[in-house]
Amino acid sequence: MAYVTLNRTSLKHNYNYLQDLFSKNDMEWAPVLKMLCGNKTYLDFILSLGDEQVCDARLGNLKTIKKLDPKKETIYIKPPAKDSIEDVIKYADISFNTEFITIKWLSEEAQRQNTTHRIIIMIELGDLREGIMGESLMDFYRRVFELPNIEVAGIGANLNCLNGVMPSKDKLIQLSLYEQLIEAKFGKKIKGVSGGSSVMVPLLMKGQIPKGVNHFRIGETLFLGTDLFENKTIPDMKDDVFMLHSEIIEITEKPVVPYGIMEENPSGEMTEINEEEYGTTQKRAILDIGLLDISKVDFLKPTEKDLEFIGASSDMLVLDVSKTVKDHKVGDVISFKMSYMGALRVMNSKYIKKELID
Fold first, then answer.
1. Nearest 5°: CA angle at 31, between 70 and 301?
2. Per residue in 284-333, pLDDT tens?
3. DSSP string, 127-189
4. CATH number of the domain that 191 lies in?
5. Are 137 and 121 in contact (CB under 8 A)?
6. Residue ranges in the chain assigned as alpha helix (H)
7. Are residues 211 and 336 in the same domain?
8. Which among 189, 285, 220 has a CA at the least distance from the CA of 246?
9. Domain extent for 334
10. pLDDT tens per residue across span 155-203
11. What's phi and psi for 126, nearest 5 deg?
């Protein structure tokens, strides 16, 4: 059975690295835990590492977090759907918002639950996912400010989430200026300016975060140690927090070129034939994972050298092991590091066992 491991030592190292980085810069940060997909064992461990707020985009996961640690401050990091309003108030101390009608619903539900709900107003900075347009911010804030049981905890933005628009010092200065405009016009202090996600970490390391931007939500860099500008591991961070392990269930020398009448495979792909490969063979290993678990083989990186992906079906992954030094056998385990989307997909698979290791 395929399984994924979370290395406690590596995760704690990355957590402490980021905590030290943000503390030195007098900034706050909140771990984004959606990659854990509500796994109680993993959540219980990371919740023990510090007192920071935690973020998730799934209310079911926030509910689990509140059960594990009722005092932990939680942030729901996407605009709520109408039918989730009651649970947002129950399980999220703060939520991201961009629509007045949604905040009005939150206000009404907060009154029913006899509580005050805090919101972060998300502002569009060019990536064109969630966020109100900057020219609408003043009127938007004025209307929100009048709602009972709602407190504006801050403003925020997202970049590099949909169209790949990268953050810059200029864009963050723009976000900081919106904070100053609100404070000048309404005489209300905006406590938090949430600058973005893991993509902001390299800018912070280079001293390019402007004064006023004081809060960040970090997931990918926490779990994978990734520098999203250079697409490589940040020096002194660990990239082995998550590892996927899968067993060889068949290993056989087979022709390189398939034979028979050919059509598209179940993924809609048509195999291209290279006539020069007729008559050649390769040693093929089949693993007990497939597209149902990993979505794309591109999300995986084997820890062994000279392993090559041949393809995958819904439940099996095929590798060319002809060039490897190791003499692989049935029952051997192949291990992979994963990209962010790969780890997210694997963690979300109920068919993959999850283990906590040191």
1. 130
2. 999 999 999 998 999 999 999 999 999 999 999 999 999 998 999 999 99
3. S-SS-B-GGGHHHHHHHHHTSTTEEEEEEE---SSSS-PPP-HHHHHHHHHHHHHHHHHH---
4. 3.20.20.10
5. yes
6. 8-24, 40-47, 59-68, 85-91, 100-112, 137-145, 169-186, 201-205, 220-224, 291-294, 340-347
7. no
8. 285
9. 242-357
10. 999 999 989 999 999 999 999 999 999 999 999 889 999 999 999 999 9
11. 125, -15
DSSP state for residue 234 in the 8-state scheme: P
| 222 and 247 fall within a common domain | no
Residue 65 Cα distances to 49, 140, 296, 334, angstroms: 14, 32, 30, 33
pLDDT in tens, 199-211: 999 999 999 999 8
- The residues annotated as belonging to the active site are 34
DSSP class of 288: S
Domain count along the chain: 2
Q: Which helix (H) or strand (E) holds 117?
A: strand 117-122
The 3-state DSSP class for residue 251 equals: strand
Reading the block at residue 288, the tokens are 């007990």
Phi, psi of 192 (to 5 degrees): -120, 135
For 6, the token pair is 């979370």
Please choose, from the candidates 9, 30, 27, the residue with its C-alpha nearest in 3D space to the C-alpha of residue 221: 30
